[in-house]
Amino acid sequence: MIEIAGLSKRYGEKLAVDGLTFTVRPGTVTGFLGPNGAGKSTTMRMILGLDHPTGGDVRIDGRHYHELADPLTYIGALLDAKAVHGGRSARNHLLCLAQSNGIPARRVGEVLETVGLTAVARKKAKGFSLGMSQRLGIAGALLGDPRILMFDEPVNGLDPEGIHWIRGLMKSLAAQGRTVFVSSHLMSEMALTADHLVVIGQGRLLADTTMADFIERNSRSWVRIRTPDRERLLDALHTAGIAVVEAGDGLLEVDGGRPERIGELAARHQVVLHELSVRQSSLEDAFMRLTAQSVEYHARPEPAGQSWGAHRIARTAAGPPAPKAAPTTTPATPAPLTTPTTPATAPTTTPTEG
Amino acid sequence: MSTPQTPLPQAAPPAREAGAAAPYAGYTSPIPVVRTHLGHALASEWTKIRSVRSTMWTLGVFVLLVVGIGLLTGAIVANSGSDLSGDDDPLALGFFGVLLGSIAVITLGVLTTASEYGTGLIRTTATACPARGRFLVAKALIFFLVSFTVTLVSTVLVAVLQTAMLEGSSARQPTGGEWFKATVGVSLYIALLGLFSLLIGSVLRHSAGGITVMIGAVLAPLVIALFMATSSLEKVRTALFEYSIPNQLGVFYSSSLSDSGPSGWDPLWIMIGAVVVAFAGSWLLLEKRDV
Fold first, then answer.
1. Which domain holds residue A256?
2. CB B3 within 8 A of CB A165
3. Is residue A297 part of a domain?
4. Is residue A137 a contact partner of residue A149, using CB atoms and an 8 Å limit?
């Protein structure tokens, strides 16, 4: 478990991290999301005791990083894949790491096998592609078989097969009861791997919520209907008190509607349907909307960002929220952002639960 | 490249189930917990220094310069007949090679610390060993032992060969004390000079910058003094001469430029003082700065 309390970091004039408070729990993959320059890497460096916080505190299972006797068997981290001496072989790089923490040398071979670098173990790191470097960095993080793992943008430079592999790896690590904390600036990537989400913007906490809840809250869903009997269906929907929007191209859209209800209605009125599908705005849009607002938060006094997160936790803990009200209460009107020109992500990002 | 799906081979299924049953119990590794100490850091730094080719290159160049130039001067002097007068110490001929070779040791010293900043490896090092003073001590010890050993072997080799070459000439036989100074003394001095460079590398965190500063520090005082003709600056000039690194190195070979200034083992004490100060400074900065 990583506990972050009121963490701040100032570089000269710039406040890179501003009063962050959140907890990363074991047994789940926690996504750490924010646009470039949001303070993700700085936060991770402070967790590892590399940067000294200007204010606040970071604890790993109740202890400060420098109090850990054998840090690599406690927390493994991949910060920068290119942070290896180019002239050193992959094996020797991992060996010197293992030795510094009294980890048996046989682990080096094991983690190289795990990340699939056995064939190039004796090759110099400078000849590695970014994808291979990422794998080497991940091998370094796994070396001590730690209970906490932290990856900074791990999918950078990986090929599709590598991305697929790392998703599976993170999930299985979390399933073993480990704490997995992974940063990204890609919402779509996080949607596929993370169970919990911490979003920051300009160093402030914007959201601390479960992935399902985030999707529920931040994405607009609607039912898309295509029918040759347009007028009759419109009448029927109107009579049933369901608001319809005409989306052009003969398409009809019902905001937040339930497809089964519309399907039953159409059947009752014997209206032919050519399409009846649930659509969801992409999470990327929701994420951009959220982080764009961080500019507003910036102008406000202190507690804005934090209470937001606290509110989310409370809400999550209270149980599943009233589902249908959520999208419509989202303050920013999603309409212009979610024009269904990019419905490609919709099927994959549909929440499975609730 | 194969990518097995199982993340860790020895992550035994029982541990997995235990983790799933009690979600906050967390994962417990089968790897035994070890309380790390300096020995671990030393092993790690030894692996680091021996696993990069730049170590072999710089030390190779060092040995080549010391032995090569030593033999060359020895051969020239031996063939020129009675060049050396009765009180000249044949060991002094080793000086030239060691002076040039010191540049290689300086380079290796700076690279040992500064290159980690260039690559970003220092973050990994500091993550693996949060007690930053510990890895600095480990780096310093490993480097010192390596450079001392290599210098000692080279200087002994050169000293033996040179005295053998000048056997028949008019040069006198060096005393035991002179032997000790020209081998062990010089090796200690060179290794400490390299160690000082290592600490400068840690302070400056930049390879090229560190090497430039150190070569400047070794050569500049002597060069400046050469051009300091004004009589009002006489004292400064003498001090620059006497305390310049080449001159202090010459003290070990009893071939100092002047009769005043450091003598005997003085250069070694001065260098030890400089290293202690640099060590304190770089330790302090290492703890204080973000890496």
1. 221-280
2. yes
3. no
4. no
- Residue B128 to residue A71, Cβ atoms within 8 A: yes
**pLDDT (0 to 100) of residue B25:** 56
Give me the CATH number covering residue A27: 3.40.50.300
Shared domain check, A274 and A227: yes
Collect the ranges in chain B with pLDDT lower than 50.
1-24
Over the stretch B53-65, which tens digit does the pLDDT of each residue have? 999 999 999 999 9
Report field, pTM of the whole predicted structure over 0.95: no
CB proximity B14 to A under 8 Å: no
Q: Which of A99, A107, A123, A142 to mutate to test the interface with B (most CBs of B within 10 A)?
A: A99
Q: Is residue A88 part of a domain?
A: no
Of B39, B13, B207, B158, residue with least CA distance to A101: B39
Q: Which residues pair with A245 in a beta bridge?
A: A253
Residues A172 and A270 in one domain: no
- CB contacts < 8 A (A, B): 192
Task: Tell me if chain A has a CB within 8 Å of the CB of B133.
Answer: no
Check CB contact under 8 Å for A177 and B52: no
Q: Do B10 and A65 touch (CB under 8 A)?
A: no
Specify if A90 maps to a domain. no
**Burial class for A354, CB neighbours closer than 10 Å (0-12, 13-18, 19+):** exposed
The tens digit of pLDDT for each residue in B162-212 reads 888 887 766 778 888 889 999 999 999 999 999 999 999 999 999 999 999
The minimal CB distance from B43 to the residues A25, A26, A99 is found for: A99
What residues of chain A score a pLDDT lower than 70?
Answer: 257, 293-354
**Single-letter code of the amino acid located at B23:** P
